Amino acid sequence: MQTQKPDWLRIRIKANQNVEEVIKLLEDFSLHTVCQEAQCPNIFECFSKKTATFLILGDVCTRNCTFCDVKKGKPQEVDKNEPQKVAEAVKALNLRYVVVTSVTRDDLEDGGAEHFANVIEKIKELNPQTKVEVLIPDFNGDEKAIYKVVRARPDVLSHNVETVPRLYPTVRPKADYERSLGVLKMAKKIDDRIYTKSGLMVGLGETKEEVKEVLKNLRSVECDFVTIGQYLSPSKQHHPVVEYIHPDIFKEYREYAISIGFRYVMSNPLVRSSYLAEEATKVFESFKNFNNTAEKSTNNIDKKTNKVISF
Q1: Distance (Å, rounded) from C-alpha 39 to C-alpha 310?
Q2: Tell me: the pLDDT tens digits for 60-85?
Q3: pTM, whole model, 2 decimals?
Q4: Residue 80 CB burial class (10 angstroms; 0-12, 13-18, ≥19)
Q5: Nearest to 230 by CA among 265, 273, 196
């Protein structure tokens, strides 16, 4: 186990008035963000840019993942006005790209899928130029629930595998690796025009070979984008950090992911699944149409293969 953070994980925070403005706006709308609830290390950077990842369906999760600092227990009633409030907050922040995620709600019949769809639709209604990425739970593998979200036409549908399958019993005891892969596969089956995305943490005790196998598994279900970041334990009660992965290894993972066909790769110690998500629009906007093939190459696209070569 490692306790001393290396230099590459030290974050230099600069004061910015935008941080207070974002916090006040979220309080005014009574909204949650995963940035706050999960103690994201990038919170001040993102808030200073007036961006945030909205956390819907309350702030209490029904799962017991040992890496996550979101509260566990009995969730609150679903706020029926939340879709409108999120859409208005997106408008107030003048966001061109928004990420919406949620706690897992195993207590709800559809896992909150209809609520997700309502949030997507309301954001697009009030903010027609805004692209929407949703980071969804597994909905217990229910294809009907996944269909509800996909039919609302998010621009990107993300579901994180989080770690390698060997570590699921200790890191994600109520989740299932194959089920998570199935969520991404089903989304493509329902609408093959949709971009799918996943993310995983490293430093939990996995091997390089296991990480690369997960990347291959994700490509086998046609996952388009992937993020890889360093796990940071929220407290002594959570899963410990087994290893701080050197930036050179993150570079190796990025190059491998690109080589097997991912369209967009973000691999860096401080990367989180929704961190700088808008950067993907640099790739999207180089395509002839948001859901089809490339029209022209950019500095980030290989002219021969149309693969992203750097991020």
Answers
A1: 28
A2: 889 888 777 677 888 889 999 999 99
A3: 0.81
A4: exposed
A5: 273
